[in-house]
User: Fold these one by one.
Assistant:
Number 1:
Amino acid sequence: VYIKDDQKENKISARSNKLFQQINRIIVDCVQGTALDNKDFTVKNFEGKDGYLVMLTPVTKTMKDLFAGINVVVDKKDFSILRMEMVEAGGDNTVIRFTNKKINIPVADALFAIK
């Protein structure tokens, strides 16, 4: 994961960073439609003109240690994630924007070949 903080850009391993492991899990839950089943958060949904807001509030100690709350903005047209806003327990705010998305494009079978 590349993080841009003001003028600095840092590379962080998503596998070894607990925060990014949880972010990845939340994104996957949203894509698979299982975010409402996540027992680590209470979930509130709101509908707007162009999309939906999914507000995740942590309920487990592990998640409360990482996040104060997470807001996921979903596009109404294709149900893809537009933006994910995370307020960390320490007060830092992280925003991930999904741009130039390509949905359901053909992928060559060769990319899945086991060598």
Number 2:
Amino acid sequence: MCNEEKSSDSLLADIGLDIQRVLWSLFECWKNEGTEADHVQVFELSVEFACGEVYQKVVHSQEGKTETFYYKNIYHPVDATIWIVDSEEGAVMMKTEKK
């Protein structure tokens, strides 16, 4: 794991730590693989139901690329948009407010 600073903004209080860990893990995996990435990573979270099960759907997008992931063992799935903004000083996770 990098020695880079990571933080989360206060709007993430209603986003479970399990979801935050998943997003940080995806972010770190791409960085460690050397995957070319934008400075802003966008994660669209939504709750999906299939065969009586509840899933956290995570759609990751950056310029020219979209990936979708499904997670079953999330304690409290949510509908939200999360950004991870990367800089030389570190990275910060933020939740956007829908109006």
Number 3:
Amino acid sequence: LYSMGLIRIFRISRDMSYFMIWAQVVLMLLWFISLLIILRSTERQSQLINSRSTITREKFEELCGDLWEQSLIPVKKVLSHSGLKLDEIYAIELIGGATRVPKLQAKLQDFLGRKELDKHIDADEAIVLGAALHAANLSDGIKLNRKLGMIDGSSYGFSIELDGVGLANNESTKQLLIPRLKKLPSKMRSLKHDKDFEVSLYYENGDMLPPGISSDKFLQFAVSGLTDASEKYSSRNLSSPIKATLHFSLSRSGILSLTKADAVVEISEWVEVPKKNLTVGNSTDVTPNVTVEAARGSSSEAGAENLNVDGDTSSTSNSNEVEQNAVDTGTEKKLKKRTFRVPLKVVEKAFGLGVSLSGESLSEAKLRLNALDKKDAERRRTAELKNNLESYIYATREKVCQKKQAYIVK
């Protein structure tokens, strides 16, 4: 028994020695890792530069000298677009951060020739409150007690250009359709033409467009059906040349579009209309016949109308009796104008970046996309395998540690 006890103690002490060795190795690794972290952090701190400094207001205003002149550009643009002069302005209200920059306020005072600027509203809440009220004014679900007098204008001016066979020079050139900052729910433009044509819409001033816009042309439409309509009604008696009418609309977001187009055809025709006369006669006195032309669609035989005829006071009531008879004298021809509105087909044409890919380009794009999809699938598969391997390593290590602990306890 004594020898068996010694053997067991020797085994436990041997296992404990292995455990202590592994513990020392782990502690050494942790110490090296912490030392490496400390060294890296000290290297980073040695490379940092403290940029804290102080600056006076005079120096700040001197460094921002070019910005003060640029801050006056929006005011000058507003005056030029509105056509107002400085002496016609009643008040200048400051909102936002402008109320906290003294140099900016001094520049505005010098430019406007005023001693003080107006500050009657909350500078921070004014924009938010105005935007909320304007949104409620535009919304159909929110009812305000009264309508606010705010109107959105177009941010850009728009021009139109027509291209087609037989167009006049003044119609084929670019013309202003909508001036800038003008309200235009809808607008109609007519031109005398009998052939199909194309409509192109442009921004009025390309210099005002944001960076990245390569062309001031933004929409193009093909209007068809006008040639067929002119051929159909060419044999009729046209009272005026055929006109094409274009209907444009400007949304609340400032987006211009061609909603519809139609051809206006005016025809003059001789139409036979029944001619009816109303004869008024006196039973006793010889009076001339009074003829009244009956209006179209009215009934001439609805009843008799009493007419006061001057006569002798001693005549009887029968002598003042009036008879009204409708006499049909045949038909007569009248020249009438009839107007026909023929809807035209409007098709939006893609150009520039909106042009569709050709068949060859589309096939190449599909091949590239398929190759990218395969690479993505391989990457996901590799990541999944790595995660599975890592999970297996952690699970195996945990099982080994559990077996060692159980063996040590035994």
